[in-house]
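Structure in, sequence out. Go:
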């Protein structure tokens, strides 16, 4: 078994070196990872980005597009035959339907290849023809990314951390209290009975789902919420328990520990090896406005999750020889606050500053490792228009759009974000229950009805600048 594994590793290494050499020397490939936690807008981001690269009239912030050097952009079969294709056509169809609707959110990994024919710039433009650059977009749930921190934890360590978190939340979460009651009633040293193990796993999954809905982001293991074809399998039938003084061989504790280790080895590690470790550009989408709306605890939870997420990256700079010999490292990471169209443009700089402060610890570690990082506020598809409303002699900068729930037009003044991000992050870190100064409102807007001319992509906010940071240097 050891010889077989070693041979497989050597063969995989040889194949990877050959693939990287071909990509580096002939037709360059940019592997862009797109992730974010629930409701951050990953599917809409990818759909809008691909459409905007094919129809580039609104992409003035992407230098190669502004200079007219992108001669063509076309979809091609993806290189990974075992990964589901990102269903671009269905998602774009949802956004252009009458009436339009938001596409289904990410529930598993998917991939799409967009090939760009790019003319060179500068002195080479007159002597060198156009070249092809492949953009491989890898879409995966942020919950799966958070699972990578489990690779460095034992079942006992993970159980202690999760049970402490549940204890802190049991006063405000019925699901947390219910799970703790079940776990405390169990004899972890007793013989495994499968129905009891399944009941524990179901109760723990209920807690994770409720925690996510209430604004929590530390919801590992992520496959409990997005199981796919693993639903009901033993690898997803474990839960945290208090470690007993003695641990017999066929005890409930031993089996939970074995399944936890199987989850790390058979689910988390292959994802890292086969997909995540091959990414060299990354965007992390954040629903910062949603977290602010839910309160200080949700914002602090998002800040902590960003630290865990970056711990999973291998940030650094992709020198030619290093790429050939060691494989890719994530060399550019963009933290993007989505739904900027829910704010008047006068608030965008404050949203970007809050996002930068929220991810500062994560970005510092990335910069130390040699990666470039950036934070910005974006809207992949602009669903609102701006207007000024007067009320009691005051002017309020608002946005107006179609409400998702009712289909009616409404204007929103969400509240003014603070100039100093510490006004939000400080109370969040201190564990405040509510914001003292102001309430921040959020509405769910439906996508706009699009009427686009040939060559014109969807309306957006800074999608072109995001593309410039992520891939502009390679075009």
């Amino acid at each position: 078994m050891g010889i077989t594994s070693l041979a497989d590793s050597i063969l995989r290494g040889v194949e990877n070196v050959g693939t990287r050499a071909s990509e580096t020397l002939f037709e360059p490939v940019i592997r862009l990872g797109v992730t974010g936690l629930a409701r951050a807008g990953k599917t809409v981001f990818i759909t809008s980005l691909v459409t905007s690269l094919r129809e580039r009239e609104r992409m003035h912030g992407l230098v190669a597009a502004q200079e007219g050097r992108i001669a063509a952009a076309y979809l091609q079969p993806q290189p990974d035959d075992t990964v589901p294709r990102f269903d671009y056509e269905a998602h774009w169809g949802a956004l252009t339907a009458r009436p339009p609707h938001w596409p289904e959110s990410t529930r598993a990994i998917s991939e799409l290849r967009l090939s760009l024919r790019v003319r060179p710039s500068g002195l080479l433009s007159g002597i060198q023809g156009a070249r092809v650059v492949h953009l491989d977009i890898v879409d995966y749930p942020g919950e799966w990314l958070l699972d990578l921190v489990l690779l460095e934890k034992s079942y006992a360590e993970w159980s202690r951390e999760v049970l402490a978190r549940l204890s802190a939340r049991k006063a405000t979460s019925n699901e947390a209290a219910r799970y703790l009651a079940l776990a405390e009633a169990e004899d972890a040293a007793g013989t495994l009975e499968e129905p009891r193990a399944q009941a524990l796993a179901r109760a723990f999954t209920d807690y994770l789902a409720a925690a996510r809905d209430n604004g929590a982001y530390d919801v590992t293991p992520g496959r409990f919420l997005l199981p796919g074809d693993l639903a009901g399998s033993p690898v997803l039938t474990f839960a945290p328990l208090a470690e007993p003084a003695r641990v017999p061989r066929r005890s409930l504790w031993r089996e939970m520990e074995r399944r936890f280790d199987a989850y790390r080895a058979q689910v988390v590690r292959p994802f890292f090896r086969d997909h995540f470790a091959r990414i060299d550009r990354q965007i992390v989408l954040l629903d910062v406005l949603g977290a602010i709306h839910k309160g200080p605890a949700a914002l602090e939870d998002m800040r902590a999750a960003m630290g865990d997420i970056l711990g999973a990256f291998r940030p650094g700079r992709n020198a030619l020889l290093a790429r050939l010999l060691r494989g890719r490292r994530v060399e550019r990471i963009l933290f993007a606050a989505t739904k900027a169209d829910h704010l008047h443009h006068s608030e965008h700089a404050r949203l970007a500053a809050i996002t930068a402060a929220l991810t500062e610890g994560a970005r510092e570690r990335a910069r130390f490792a040699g990666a470039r990082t950036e934070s910005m506020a974006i809207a992949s598809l602009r669903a609102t228009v701006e207007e000024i409303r007067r009320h009691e002699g005051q002017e309020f900068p608002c946005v107006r759009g179609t409400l998702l729930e009712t289909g009616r037009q409404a204007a929103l003044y969400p509240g003014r974000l603070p100039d100093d991000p510490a006004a939000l992050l400080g109370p969040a870190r201190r564990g405040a229950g509510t914001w003292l100064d102001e309430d921040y409102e959020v509405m769910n807007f439906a996508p706009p009805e699009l009427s686009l001319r040939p060559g014109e992509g969807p309306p957006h906010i800074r999608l072109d600048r995001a593309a410039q940071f992520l891939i502009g240097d390679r075009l």
